[in-house]
Amino acid sequence: MLLKNHSKFILECGTDEAGRGCLAGPVTAAAVILPKTFKNDILNDSKQLSEKKRDLLKPIIETQALSFGITHIFEDTIDDINILNASILAMQKSIEQLVPQPEFIIVDGNRFKPFKNIPFETIIKGDSKYLSIAAASVLAKTYRDMYMNKIHEEFPMYNWKQNKGYPTKAHRAAIKEFGITKYHRKTFRLLPDLV
After folding, report:
1. pTM over the 0.90 mark
2. pLDDT tens profile 19-47
3. Where does this protein reside within or beyond the cell (predicted)?
4. Is the omega angle on the peptide bond into residue 100 within 30 degrees of 0, that is, cis?
5. 4-41 core/surface letters (b: 16 or more CB in 10 A; e: else)
6. Which residues are annotated as a binding site for a divalent metal cation?
7. What is the pLDDT of residues 34-84, one digit of tens each?
8. SS3 for 182?
9. Domains and CATH numbers, the chain
């Protein structure tokens, strides 16, 4: 059973990202403030849920959250500032969109940077412990998947509809055959044999 709040604050937001380990596409983050009364038995870390369940949860989270924000940070920025900084930036930009602003931030993982003097706590596997982080993980994943499905139409040979930009064998085989696109992260090791 996921916990509601980590802090004593009412306006506590959870934040998480999706797509950190991908070779192509953005890193996408979401931030969510849920009401005290929020209940959902299916909601869990997005990696534990089927695509069908995530798609089912997305509108529920969006209509029941007090506030939510979503941010894509694209390949050029990832290559420029590195994936860790891009992930943190995506989470901070998502939090920035929240109205009202949170009084406390809980972050999935172990790295974050201070944001607007709002106290925060990083929580390893937070998306399987707290509802608001789980909700953020679902939104980050569904919005990123929608984006990857869209750019799949432009470059179907990489099969992003299926692999979402992750380093699958098929994705790497396509990079070997067709080279890279403007959506690939140039600073990532796109092929294992390239140093």
Report:
1. yes
2. 999 999 999 999 999 999 999 999 998 88
3. Cytoplasm
4. yes
5. ebbeeeebbbbbbbbbeebbbbbbbbbbbbbeeebeee
6. 16-17, 108
7. 999 999 999 998 889 999 999 999 999 999 999 999 999 999 999 999 999
8. coil
9. 12-147 (3.30.420.10)
